Automatic annotation (TrEMBL), chains A, B, C:
It is found in: Cell membrane. This is Urea transporter. It comes from Hafnia alvei. The lineage of its organism: Bacteria, Pseudomonadati, Pseudomonadota, Gammaproteobacteria, Enterobacterales. It is a multi-pass membrane protein. The chain crosses the membrane at residues 22-39, 45-68, 75-94, 128-149, 156-177, 183-203, 210-228, 234-253.
């Protein structure tokens, strides 16, 4: 927990020293700083990886933003995802990086429900906010509420979309009978929360048409989450926020054609 | 069989209700409607997936077409392939989607011929039309002939290229000693048929130079088919028409440079 | 050894007959001709694959160059990597192509050092030049020195960057405790050598700022090498020069923004 906070500061410091547009380049480095200590056992070398990862995340933000400029789409958290994936994948090859926190590589296999679904409704309030705190890779009711308050101060619409997105994602995943523990920990909703905010409030002015569009986007994000979990299972790395990035890119690229009037 | 037809109609209905350019956006939704019941056990939820998949296939057609516009290439069946892959991959994570029809995930291993090749020539006529019907994910002599007649009415050249493409693909796969049963079922030729039509007749006016170009394209499609079978074997999903999409993109992007005179 | 030389000549001959800009299109075909006999057991069919692979490498050079033109980046050795990957992957499906030289497909697992690191310094001189000769897929002190002399005649800066890149890569990989045998054979340095040449001398005029940029690029290439080794382990194919291609693209796309003054 402390490590996460310090890592975040390090990530930000590295950006600050560079004196570049911090707001835009900083958050990917910050997320790298949060993610690496979650999956790798802490050591001085992991600190080095965070510093290097922050620099690489800035370079890849520039690179991905330059590529996506062609289609007028933002890089979102893709630089964070690619940088972290590369470092986590490489940890298998380097014996000085201990990846105890990574899932064990295995073939995908059909998930079959074992628990009874009656215990479901008890925790839906917790699950709702776990999904929001899971964006920063931990499950916490308080953390989720704090993040939501911060978001509401910035934009009330964004906060409303975040809660509704989290709820809709839990509903979809439960309906499709995904692993109940994963749903409760917010593993099916954190990407959906980001998609809901991105499609619903950041990039478009809210309206009924945007609402329907966001609804489909959130449901699709849950399916992409399941698909990426399967895709990455033989590699033993987590999806991070890639489902959000893929679903948002898919819905934002043709956005200009479908709803030009509501585009900001 | 009946399910396939009904699914196709559903796929088309969804498009119709949207009242968008049906011809262009419809066929990817239609293919999603054919593919999902082939690999997933039918249930009301799979119907829901077909409806959602059709909507997603329209959004991804818009998205992919917008991206490829930069290089003046068509989306082909890529929206169908990506949409279906995502739903099939996600079926592993959701216990309400039973993926009994999917191949079992396994490591790639060198294929070694066991059957003797003398029984080969007996079925080459069947294999030829299986390759054409396999585009719609089933092996049938009658189905292949019916599809070919439909194609011939539209364009005689396309039908000729389809038959020649299927024959050349069977020849190449047999020469490279692929699994004989797979060849007979048309699994090495359905993508090659589409490549032959796309490179030979749809996008370019037929000529000797186009013919040589198409010949290489068809042989390459068979190799890409083998490569994608290997690539996807740890994930337990089928290649669908991706070999056709990859080979056609590869040969169409530099097309303007190699043969500008024959370009329509 | 002899086969490699003859294959190289074949690769070049195919290009010559086409009478196209040999210098630009030839080297990818040449590398395909070197790579295939390294991983596949020689047979007349492999010769056919080399000829087909050379043609495909020219088409994919045109295709990739056309795509990357949008962001003003070169295709580098990407056409060689993709063409060879496809043929090697397909060799699993075709029993007439024996892929005895390919690594066995397996799940990624954390590498743990067994040897003691004291024997390290004895061979660092050998390792240095193995990394350079490994670009052409073999480990040889003499081969590395000969290649370096050839490079020095063309450009002294390029040769200096090659040696420094190889040394820095060995240092980084040793520091991260990668498999010592792999380091000694140059498997962690051949891509780093190419990155050092590309970032340091070919695309930019050398300066202190370029030097720092190249330094990070080389260290990152070693990490990408480890990541791609993990990524490809379930598929049983080698990384080839993909780490170089990925790292160089990442650093070259935003290059115009970071250092426009030094850009040639």
């Amino acid at each position: 927990m402390l490590g996460t906070v310090v890592a975040t500061l390090t990530g930000l410091t590295v950006r600050d020293r560079k004196s570049w547009r911090v707001g835009l380049y900083g958050y990917n480095g910050c997320l790298v700083g949060v993610a690496l200590p979650t999956f790798l056992e802490m050591s001085p070398l992991v600190w080095g990886c965070i510093v290097l990862g922050s620099i690489i995340s800035v370079v890849s933000t520039l690179c991905i933003a330059d590529i996506l400029k062609t289609w007028k789409v933002a890089a979102l958290t893709a630089p964070f995802v690619f940088t972290t994936w590369i470092i986590l994948l490489s940890s298998y090859a380097f014996s000085s990086l201990h990846n105890g926190g990574l899932p064990h590589p295995s073939f995908p296999h059909q998930f079959i429900v074992e628990t009874n679904s009656t215990e479901n409704r008890h925790y839906v309030f917790d699950s709702l906010f776990n999904g929001i705190s899971q964006i920063f890779l931990f499950s916490s009711l308080i953390g989720g509420i704090l993040f939501l308050i911060g978001l509401a101060i910035e934009s009330l619409w964004a906060a409303i979309f975040a809660v509704c997105g989290s709820f809709l994602a839990i509903l979809t995943a439960t309906f499709l009978m995904a692993n109940y523990d994963s749903i409760h920990l917010g593993l099916y909703s954190f990407s959906a929360v980001l998609t809901a905010i991105a499609l619903g409030s950041t990039f478009n002015n809210p309206s009924w048409r945007v609402l329907a569009y966001t609804l489909i986007g959130v449901i699709f994000t849950v399916i992409v989450q399941g698909a990426l979990d399967t895709l990455l299972s033989p590699l033993g790395i987590p999806t991070l926020t890639m489902p959000f990035v893929l679903a948002s890119w898919l819905f934002l690229v043709p956005n200009k054609e479908i709803m030009p009037a509501h585009r900001q």
